[in-house]
């Protein structure tokens, strides 16, 4: 006698499930909230014929209730300044970028370092689509330092019209470093965000990634610059020890012997 009500309840539950799925795919439920993307740069990165790799931040102050958080091997942080997910173009701000050349370029044992210019905002726009693709375009204003991140500025310039595109998903990529309110559970309530979920998160997954976290490439064609990076992952204990050692060694001042080679002062990388 109760079979029919049970069937009716089941049909209602299925209708609700299908309705939720329909809303998620067709009526703006693919909302991506503002947040940050944390990236680790690969040594295949090239600017002006020189190979570069990232200098780990270890920690970063996101401000507000989030404050200072552990970011591991992250060397590049991009901040999405608006809400997207259905083709809206929003502002993309480059908050941090710090590289070191893979080989000495200023003389024996003297490496080049790249940071963002402090007086010039780097960034552009990103468009996040509901077919789970995205595209970005931005400019990078940089300082080239001699010997350390805080070394003398040898040259300044612009990497213009960097572009990148790929796929994205709501759930974190494999082994990704997640920070609530930064790149994870963005719809939660601060300061803990513990009541949130991944329904409004954004995780770029690149195209043809070959490392954990998914390989992503952005490029500017003028001088063949290519930024190769992947989503920052949680380091293994052995890697964490090496990271601490590496950060300590980078703090040691190097002897400054100028031998700039082919690099030229005030060269505007990425512009003609």
Give a verbal description of the structure:
The protein is mostly beta strands and 272 residues long. Helix content is 14%, strand content 37%. The chain has two domains: 1-29; 31-250, no CATH class. It has helices at 3-26, 237-250; strands at residues 35-41, 45-47, 50-54, 58-61, 68-72, 76-80, 89-101, 112-116, 123-128, 133-146, 153-169, 203-206, 215-220, 225-231. Residues 1-28 and 238-272 have low confidence and may be disordered. The longest helix has 24 residues, at 3-26. It is globular. The chain contains two helices and 14 strands; from the N terminus they run αββββββββββββββα. Strands 1, 2, 3, 6, 7, 8, 9, 10, 11, 12, 13 and 14 form a twelve-stranded antiparallel beta sheet that branches. A two-stranded antiparallel sheet has the order 4-5. A hairpin with a 6-residue loop joins β4 (58-61) and β5.
Can you describe this structure in just a few lines?
The chain is mainly β and 272 residues long. The protein has helices at 3-26, 237-250; strands spanning 35-41, 45-47, 50-54, 58-61, 68-72, 76-80, 89-101, 112-116, 123-128, 133-146, 153-169, 203-206, 215-220, 225-231.
């Amino acid at each position: 006698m109760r079979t029919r009500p049970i069937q009716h309840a089941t049909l209602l539950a299925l209708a609700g499930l299908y309705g939720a799925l329909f809303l998620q795919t067709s009526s703006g439920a693919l909302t991506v909230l503002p947040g940050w993307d944390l990236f680790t740069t690969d040594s295949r990165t090239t600017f002006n014929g020189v190979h570069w790799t990232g200098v780990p931040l270890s920690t970063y102050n996101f401000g507000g209730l989030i404050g200072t958080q552990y970011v591991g091997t992250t060397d590049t942080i991009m901040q999405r300044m608006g809400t997207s997910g259905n083709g809206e173009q929003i502002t993309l701000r480059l908050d941090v970028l710090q590289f070191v050349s893979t080989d000495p370029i200023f003389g024996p044992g003297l490496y080049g370092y790249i940071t963002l210019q402090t007086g010039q905002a780097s960034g552009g726009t990103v468009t996040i689509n509901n077919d789970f693709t995205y595209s970005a375009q931005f400019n990078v204003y940089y300082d080239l330092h001699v010997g350390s991140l805080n070394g003398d500025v040898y040259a300044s310039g612009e990497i213009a019209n960097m572009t990148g595109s790929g796929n994205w998903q709501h759930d974190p990529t494999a082994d990704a470093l997640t920070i609530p309110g930064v790149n994870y559970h963005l719809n939660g309530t601060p300061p803990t965000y513990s009541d949130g979920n991944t329904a409004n998160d954004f995780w770029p997954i690149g195209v043809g990634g070959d490392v954990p976290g998914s390989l992503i490439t952005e490029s500017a064609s003028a001088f063949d610059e290519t930024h190769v990076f992947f989503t920052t992952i949680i380091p293994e204990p052995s890697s964490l020890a090496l990271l601490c050692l590496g950060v300590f060694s980078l703090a040691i001042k190097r002897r400054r012997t100028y031998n700039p080679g082919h690099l030229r002062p005030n060269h505007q990388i990425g512009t003609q």
